[in-house]
Structures are given as structure tokens and as C-alpha cells.
From TrEMBL:
Name assigned to this protein: Probable dual-specificity RNA methyltransferase RlmN
Amino acids binding S-adenosyl-L-methionine: G181, E182, S215, S238, L239, H240, N314
GO cellular component terms listed in the entry, alphabetical order: cytoplasm
Gene that encodes the chain: rlmN
EC number annotated for this UniProt entry: 2.1.1.192
Cofactor list: [4Fe-4S] cluster
Family matches, as Pfam families: Radical_SAM (PF04055), RlmN_N (PF21016)
InterPro entries named in the record: Aldolase_TIM, Methyltransferase_A, RlmN_N, RNA_MTrfase_RlmN, rRNA_lsu_MTrfase_RlmN/Cfr, rSAM, rSAM_sf
Function: Specifically methylates position 2 of adenine 2503 in 23S rRNA and position 2 of adenine 37 in tRNAs.
Localisation: Cytoplasm
Enzyme class (EC, first level): transferase
Organism of origin: Blastococcus tunisiensis
Length: 390
């Protein structure tokens, strides 16, 4: 197996204290035993954690004289809410989190009829340096621990269960790794997070593999590793250009692994899993939205087990980057469909709350260009030409 290059190692800016979610079940049981408690207390703590219980006083199945000790040792608080922002009549909530070392990350919870999706971050900042992305312009602070990543999903599940999102109590149904950071550059911890998302209670959230999407800009060795390890989660490739000349500029990692290599790796994943992959393509006015590029993308993907998710760029004041106009979007869609490529245009949520990943963190730390992709909303494609899209 080819190891990921060291260039993707994040600075170790004080990784957080040990947490139950960072441990295997066996390690957690051993840790509880070392604290003088029977091993099954680890299962009780896991049940409380994955239900979003943070107050030891509510852990009534654990002896009162052991609750504080166990919680302090294995359930330390890792994510502190800086603020929530809501949009879409309360159905979208973006949360800015402060980590134990002051680093900032974001997650976005989006509710639709019958389902709810949370977009989570895997890194504080990002080292991929895509010029239209607010997170990419911040640079990489550090990788998140598995517990910090899992904690975002657990908080979203608890918010749904508690009825904190407009619509009353509900269930978290989907998780997408499309927040801050490149998930596959933090492979080991993201892989552990996948285990927790998919594991049944009390050791996880019990989601289906089809309900979890991992996005990548194209770290080919990591895509191959994910393929070899046999998970059937949805793979999303952030392509943004069909040709190497443009993609070298928009997605600098393309200078390492070219478009053809990325698509070959995604095709291998599709063959192994039987699952079609998603190609994420931000439509940027006069940059990558030309008809000839639609034709190039159609030729690249024709006959493949792939689906194109077109994303009108979330425009931000002061940026040179802007969304493609509606006529250009329509022609791009038409040309892809003429080539036989399944194509949708993604609904954009939260534009009135700095919905693009990285914008809240940028505002609360250093001043960077607040330009990025729109809030992911993978289940709600919008057909161009439909009523109300003008």
C-alpha cells in the first residue's frame, strides 16, 4: 500500500485530551478498568456520548460517586459553541466551534422533508490551497482528532432529537464530509469516524453506508486505500475542471495527481463498491463554465458510474469569483446530459449566514477572502428551468 505523502501531515498544535471516541471498545473497557470500575461502564459511557449527553448528572445508570471521575477521564469537552447562525426559516443551522487549543471549525445542519444532513469538518483549516475556497486560503492549522470529528455529528444528532431545528424532534439521517479540510488528508481519524457513524448503538450512530459521503479533491493513494478497505460510503470528487491546465490552478493538488488519475481511482472505487460516485463541480463565471468545458467533462465521464453535482459558486462581497449566470448553467447541464451524464444542480443553503465553509472561522480569526463553495445539500438537486428558479 502506498503511504500518503508527508506533505499532508498537519502541524501538531496540541492534540486534544484522550476521549472515549478515540478508543476502540477494548481500549475503552481497559481504561475504565484502570479507573477502578467494571469494564461494562465503558459501554454505558458510549451510550451517553452518542446520545449527546454531556452532563454527568444525567448518567443515572452510572454510580453517582463514579460519574465525574469517568466523565473527566473519558468524556472531556472538546467542542465549545462560539455561536449558531440560522437560515431557511430555521431549517439550516451553522455552528462555529472552538477547540481546546483555540482553533475554529464549522459544521452545518440542514433539515429537509423526511431527512436531515450534517456537513462536518475534518481539519482546522485546509492545506489544499484552492484559491476560491475560504478554508483553503486560511491554510492548515491541524488535523482534528476522531472524537472532534465525531462530536460534530453527535451534536447534530442530539439537536435533531431535541427538536432544536425547525420542524420538531427528528433523526439525523445523513453525514457529509464537506466542511473544513480535506478528509482524506486526515485518513486514519476520518476512517475511525466512519466506523463510529456506522456502528450501531451504543458504540455509534447507526447510520447506513449510503447515508455517508466522503469528499476529496483527489488524493489518489487515499482513494485507493478507501477502496481496498471495503467501505461502501459515497465518494465525492471535487473536480471543478475537466482539463489539467485549468485544474492545476483551481485545485493545486492536481499538479501531483492529474484529472485522469483521479477519475481512474474513482472508477476503481465504483467497480469495487457498485456505488456511483459524485463529481462536484463549482460553476464559476467565465472560469470553468464554458460550453467546451462542459463537452470535455461529458467526454471524460460518459459511460462511467458517475453523477455530476453542479454547484453555483456562493458569491461573496469583494471577491473576484462569482457564480455562473443562469443561462450558462442551463447550457452546461444540457451538454452534460446530451453526453449521457447524469447531472443535477445543487440547492444552496445558508447564503445569508456566510454559508460557505470557512467563512465564519475566517471572520473570527484572521482576515481572509471569504470565498468558498456553498453549503452542501446533496439530497436536494434543483432542476434548472423549474418554477421559481429565475
Amino acid at each position: 500500500m502506498t503511504a500518503l505523502p508527508l506533505v499532508f501531515d498537519a502541524p501538531r498544535r496540541g492534540m486534544p485530551p484522550r476521549h472515549l471516541a478515540d478508543l476502540t471498545r477494548e481500549e475503552a473497557r481497559a481504561a475504565v478498568t484502570e479507573l477502578g470500575q467494571p469494564a461494562f461502564r465503558a459501554d454505558q459511557l458510549a451510550r451517553h456520548f452518542y446520545r449527546g449527553v454531556t452532563d454527568p448528572a444525567q448518567m443515572t445508570d452510572v454510580p453517582a460517586d463514579a460519574r465525574e471521575t469517568l466523565a473527566e477521564a473519558l468524556l472531556p469537552g472538546l467542542l465549545t459553541v462560539v455561536r449558531h447562525q440560522t437560515a431557511d426559516d430555521g431549517r439550516t443551522r451553522k455552528t462555529l466551534w472552538r477547540l481546546h487549543d483555540g482553533a475554529l471549525v464549522e459544521s452545518v445542519l440542514m433539515r429537509y422533508p423526511g431527512r436531515a444532513t450534517v456537513c462536518i469538518s475534518s481539519q482546522a483549516g485546509c492545506g489544499m490551497a484552492c484559491p476560491f475556497c475560504a478554508t483553503g486560503q486560511q491554510g492548515l492549522t491541524r488535523n482534528l482528532s476522531a472524537a472532534e470529528i465525531i462530536g460534530q455529528a453527535v451534536a447534530a444528532a442530539a439537536a435533531m432529537a431535541n427538536g432544536d431545528i425547525q420542524g420538531g424532534p427528528g433523526r439525523l439521517s445523513n453525514v457529509v464530509f464537506m466542511g473544513m479540510g480535506e478528509p482524506l488528508a486526515n485518513y486514519a481519524r476520518v476512517r475511525k469516524t466512519l466506523d463510529a457513524l456506522l456502528a450501531p448503538a451504543p458504540h455509534g450512530l447507526g447510520l447506513s453506508q449510503r447515508a455517508v459521503t466522503v469528499s476529496t479533491v483527489g488524493l489518489v493513494p487515499a482513494i485507493r486505500r478507501l477502496t481496498d478497505e471495503g467501505r461502501n460510503v459515497t465518494l465525492a470528487v471535487s473536480l471543478h475542471a475537466p482539463d489539467d491546465e485549468l485544474r492545476d490552478t483551481l485545485v493545486p493538488i492536481n499538479t501531483r495527481w492529474k484529472v485522469g488519475e483521479v477519475i481512474d481511482a474513482a472508477d476503481a472505487y465504483a467497480r469495487k463498491t457498485g456505488r456511483r460516485y459524485s463529481v462536484e463541480y463549482a460553476l464559476i463565471r467565465d472560469v470553468n463554465d464554458q460550453p467546451f468545458r462542459a463537452d470535455l467533462l461529458g467526454k471524460l465521464l460518459a459511460g462511467k458510474l458517475a453523477h455530476v453535482n453542479l454547484i453555483p459558486l456562493n458569491p461573496t462581497p469583494g471577491s473576484k469569483w462569482d457564480a455562473s449566470p443562469l443561462p450558462a448553467q442551463r447550457e452546461f447541464v444540457a451538454r452534460l446530459r446530451a453526453a449521457g451524464v447524469a447531472t443535477t444542480v445543487r440547492d444552496t443553503r445558508g447564503q445569508d449566514i456566510d454559508g460557505a465553509c470557512g467563512q465564519l472561522a475566517a471572520a473570527d480569526s484572521v482576515s481572509v477572502p471569504a470565498v468558498a463553495l456553498p453549503v452542501p445539500a446533496v439530497e436536494e438537486p434543483v432542476e434548472l428551468g423549474a418554477e421559481g428558479d429565475e
